[in-house]
């Protein structure tokens, strides 16, 4: 990435490209004529994005100064779109250290601008009274502004877009509960913003003058209470009017459990979202328009942003979701084909059988697994496992799928994440449920010497300590029913399935 900036736009570094905003920002930067480098802890997670061949991808972590320095080389604009939320009690210190490293390395590399998307903080509220989430976001903004690099800090409240955590929370609460006993924060005034306006502002911020270094409030044209947002969502979605009864007894902690119970958003994400709604979050200036002019007609209104988001959901064109980023603490490296655990244990459950179906039909069933299609054995057992996972703070089963028919590396799939795909041959899933160890599920399409189609399935578990070994042996008696039934039902479903249209069997770029 070198050469005259004027010839090919700016040279942009995007961190957090595997996340919700980062994954949408990259194609917008490319469309604006910029050149893009993505930094990711697991570069393979970006492999199946449509724009993967148009960007440079480097391995790195914002807490590792050496990898950040390498990623900053020859960069004009560096986008900071990561945070340590959900990594544990020390996430504020991790955020602080990562932001300081990012700013220092950007300054040393001669980066012309840093752009950071943070949270809108309430005016007049002492910082110590803010939620840890908002407090950390505000501190990261200050650290970057103090880096010596001209910095744009964009502060947004609730982002409305298909797949965003805020939108999913609003959508599920409204659609699933015609009568709601709600926390008092449903009366809080909020200034939501459409994800399209967030992306437009992020792209436009790249070309701010060098003498501009400050924070900007960004929001949509309307200020609404959360209750009004739910009522308007129901109207746009064609739902009967919802009865909403606020009560003062639901604390932020109880609220997050309530949200986690009703929606796919786990407590680890729901809690900072609900804590941030304790205070009014509205814009107090619109100075950003001096540098990134509003589009004709102004920013997108709330109801139009909901219509756009629902259209993408219904047309299965959700490009990124809140769950695109991996769960903190989950293993980031793929399972080797022949794992070497250096003397450690690796428990394996293997299933293999002949399938009376063409390999394409079997692959369609494998790639369509999870979400609404389920897991092909004992739905109640999978549901109970999902509920147990949510009770201990895990993601549970309700993350579902980004797309109903196609998967890509990095996609979340219920309480799994897609770690590897070899189309037509292998799907490898990594467990992100709470377990005393690491777990994977592999599904293969093979042919035997006579040309027959074989289905192979492998569940692997690497235990952590004595508890991990005890866990495996306590659940292994059920494997014949769960994993054995899963293999048989996948084979039967493939044998009964109709041939797919040619478009369904196209290459990943088709």
TrEMBL record:
Pfam families: DUF2867 (PF11066), NAD_binding_10 (PF13460). Transmembrane segments: none annotated. It comes from the Bacteria. InterPro entries: ComplexI_NDUFA9_subunit, DUF2867, NAD(P)-bd_dom, NAD(P)-bd_dom_sf. Residues 16-158 form the NAD(P)-binding domain. PANTHER family: NADH DEHYDROGENASE [UBIQUINONE] 1 ALPHA SUBCOMPLEX SUBUNIT 9, MITOCHONDRIAL, NADH-UBIQUINONE OXIDOREDUCTASE 39 KDA SUBUNIT-RELATED. This is SDR family oxidoreductase. It comes from Streptomyces phaeochromogenes.
């Amino acid at each position: 990435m070198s050469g005259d900036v004027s010839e090919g736009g700016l040279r942009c570094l995007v961190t957090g490209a595997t996340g919700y905003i980062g994954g949408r920002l990259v194609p917008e930067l490319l469309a604006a004529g910029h050149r893009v480098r993505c930094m990711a802890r697991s570069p393979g997670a970006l492999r199946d994005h449509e724009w993967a061949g148009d960007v440079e991808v480097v391995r790195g972590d914002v807490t590792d100064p050496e990898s950040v320095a390498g990623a900053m080389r020859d960069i004009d604009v560096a986008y900071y779109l990561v945070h340590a939320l959900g990594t544990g009690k020390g996430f504020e210190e991790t955020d602080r250290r990562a932001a300081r490293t990012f700013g220092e390395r950007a300054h040393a590399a001669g980066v012309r601008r840093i752009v950071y998307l943070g949270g809108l903080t309430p005016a007049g509220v002492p910082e110590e009274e803010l939620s840890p989430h908002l407090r950390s976001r505000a501190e990261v903004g200050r650290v970057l502004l103090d880096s010596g690099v001209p910095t744009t800090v964009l502060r947004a409240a609730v982002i409305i877009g298909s797949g965003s955590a805020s939108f999913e929370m609003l959508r599920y609460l409204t659609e699933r509960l015609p009568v709601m006993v709600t926390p008092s924060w449903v009366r809080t005034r909020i200034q939501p913003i459409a994800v399209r306006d967030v992306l437009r502002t992020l792209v436009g911020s790249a070309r701010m003058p060098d003498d501009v270094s400050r924070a900007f409030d960004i929001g949509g044209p309307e200020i609404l209470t959360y209750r009004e947002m739910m009522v308007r969502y129901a109207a746009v979605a064609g739902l009967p009017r919802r009865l909403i009864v606020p009560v003062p007894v639901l604390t932020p902690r109880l609220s997050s459990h309530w949200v986690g119970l009703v929606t796919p958003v786990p407590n680890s994400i729901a809690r900072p979202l609900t804590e941030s709604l304790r205070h009014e979050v509205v814009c107090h200036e619109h100075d950003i328009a001096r540098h990134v002019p509003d589009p004709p007609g102004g920013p997108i209104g709330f109801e139009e942003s909901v219509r756009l988001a629902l259209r993408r959901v219904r047309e299965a064109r959700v490009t990124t979701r809140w769950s695109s980023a991996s769960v903190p603490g989950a293993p980031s490296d793929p399972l080797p084909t022949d794992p070497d655990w250096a003397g450690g244990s690796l428990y394996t459950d293997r299933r293999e059988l002949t399938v009376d179906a063409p390999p394409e039909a079997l692959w369609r069933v494998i790639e369509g697994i999870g979400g609404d299609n389920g897991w092909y054995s004992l739905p109640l057992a999978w549901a109970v496992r999902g509920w147990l996972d949510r009770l201990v703070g895990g993601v549970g089963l309700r993350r579902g799928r980004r797309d109903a028919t196609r998967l890509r590396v990095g996609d979340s799939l219920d309480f799994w994440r897609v770690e590897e795909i070899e189309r037509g041959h292998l799907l490898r899933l990594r467990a992100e449920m709470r377990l005393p160890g690491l777990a994977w599920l592999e599904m293969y399409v093979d042919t035997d010497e006579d040309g027959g189609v074989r289905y192979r399935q492998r569940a692997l578990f690497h235990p952590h300590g004595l508890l991990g070994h005890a866990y495996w042996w306590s659940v292994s008696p059920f494997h014949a029913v769960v994993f054995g039934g899963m293999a048989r039902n996948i084979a039967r479903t493939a044998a009964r399935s109709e041939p797919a249209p040619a478009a369904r069997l196209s290459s990943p770029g088709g």
